[in-house]
Amino acid sequence: MKYKPADRIQDLQYFGEFGGVNPSISDSSTYTFLSAKTMFDTFEGNAEGCYLYSRHSSPSNLYLGEALAAMEGTETANVSASGMGAITSVLMQLCKAGDHIVCSRTVYGGTYAFLKNFAPQFGINTTFVDITKPELVEAAVQNNTKVLYCETVSNPLLEIADLEALSRISKSHDLKLVVDNTFSPLSISPAKLGADVVIHSLTKFINGSSDTVGGVVCGTKEFINDLRNVNDGAAMLLGPTMDSLRAASILKNLRTLHIRMKQHSHNAMFLAKKFQEDGFKTVYPGLQSHPGHEIFKKMMNETYGFGGMLTIDVGSLDKANELMELMQERNLGYLAVSLGFYKTLFSAPGTSTSSEIPEEEQKEMGLSDGLIRFSIGLDNDIERTYEMMKECMIEVGVLDTEMV
Ligand SMILES: *Cc1c(COP(=O)(O)O)cnc(C)c1O
Question: Span of the secretion signal (predicted)?
C-alpha cells in the first residue's frame, strides 16, 4: 500500500486537559513527582510517561515530535530549536573523534560549514561527493566512515538523491544514512526508502509562516533515546531545545501542510514550465529536463507534487539582483533567504545561503553567479503572477521581447 503521510498526521488525536480540541500547552520547565523513587527512575530513563525537565522533554514537544514521526513513518522523533540544532546533534551523536562522514557536496550552507570547518576540530572529517553518482559515493567510504549524509532534494541546486541506492550502500558498509528532507516534506518519505535518520528544518515548509526557526530528528526509539540520554545524549547536553509555546504553534501549522504543499507544487510546476519555455535554464524536479526527474518520480508520494523550489539562471549576478529587486518592488515576493512562506521568496544562493562554500567549489558544483533560487508561494492566481514576473524580466533585459 502507498504511504500516506498526511493521513497519518490527520489520524492523530490529541485533546487538551479540559477537552480542548488542541492539546494544552505545557508551560513548565520542571515537573513534580509524587515519589522520589519515580524521579530517580526518570533520570535513569526507566519511567515512561514521566517528565523530568523540559530540556529533556515536555508534553508539547512530544506531541509535535509524535506528529512528525507519524508523517515520516519512524518510531519516534525529537524536536529541536532549529534545523541546525537537529543536524549537529545527530552528527555529534553518531560520530566520535577519528570518525569519518561521506556527505553530498551540495548541502545547506550551514551543514557544509559545520562539516568543513567545525567538526574537524573534534577529529571528525568529511569527504564531499557528487551524491547523484552512487559509485563515487561508495568509493569515498573508508574503514572509519560512520555516516552517509545527504538532502533528498539538495540546496540550492535541487539535485535528487536516489535514497534506495544510497541505503543499499550504507547498509553494505554498516553506515547510518542521515537524510535532510527539508525541501520535500510529504512528497518524499526517506525512512520508507531506507534512511536511518530523517531531519527537517521546521523553519521552512513544515511551519510555513516564517515566524520561527525549529528542527526535528525522526528515527528509532533507540536512537532518539540516545540523543536525549542525560549522560551522553547530544540533544540533552548541547541543549538545542524547542520552547513548548513554539511546539504548540508549529503543530497547528503542520495540520495544513498537505494543502500548502499541493499549492506550492502546483504553482512551482506552472512557473517552471513557463520559464523553461521562455528559454531560461530552469531547474525543477518536476520537469522532464531535470536529471533527477525519474528518480524523484520513483520515490514520491504522488499527490503532493514536486515541491515548491526552483531555480533559474539569468546570466549574471547583477541581472539577478536587478530582477529580484524589481520583483520585490512589484510585490511578487520578497528578496529573502529561507523557504516555505505564503509569499514567494527569492535569493541568489552564491552570495547568500551558500556563501559559506568557497567560490571555486561553487563553480565546480554548477552554482553559477546568475542563479536565482525561488521558493514559490501560495499565490491564488499563478498565471497573473507569471505575467507580472515576465514584465519584470523584460524590463531588466533578461527576457528577449522577440521571443514572447
Ligand atoms: C534552513 C535549512 C537548514 C537549517 O535549518 P535552521 O532551522 O535554519 O537551523 C538545514 N537544511 C536545509 C535543507 C535548510 O533549508
Answer: none
Distance (Å) from CA 371 to ligand 1 centroid: 19
| Burial classification of residue 58, based on how many CB atoms lie within 10 Å of its CB (0-12 exposed, 13-18 middle, 19 or more buried) | buried
The domain made up of 5-254 has a fold known as Aspartate Aminotransferase; domain 2 (3.40.640)
CATH code given to domain 259-403: 3.90.1150.10
240 pocket-lining for ligand 1 (C-beta < 6 Å): no
Pick the atom of ligand 1 nearest to 215's CA. Answer: 7
C-alpha to C-alpha distance for 69 and 48, rounded to whole angstroms: 18
Which residue has a Cα nearest atom 8 of ligand 1? 83
The CA radius of gyration of the chain, in Å to the nearest whole number, is 22
Residue 403: what pLDDT? 55
Closest residue by Cα to atom 5, ligand 1, is 83
Q: pLDDT averaged over the chain?
A: 94
Indicate whether 402 pLDDT > 80.
no
Ligand 1: distance of its center to the CA of 288 in Å? Answer: 27
Residue with cell 547530544: 234
User: Is the sign of the CA dihedral 284, 287, 290, 294 positive or negative?
Assistant: positive
pTM tops 0.90: yes
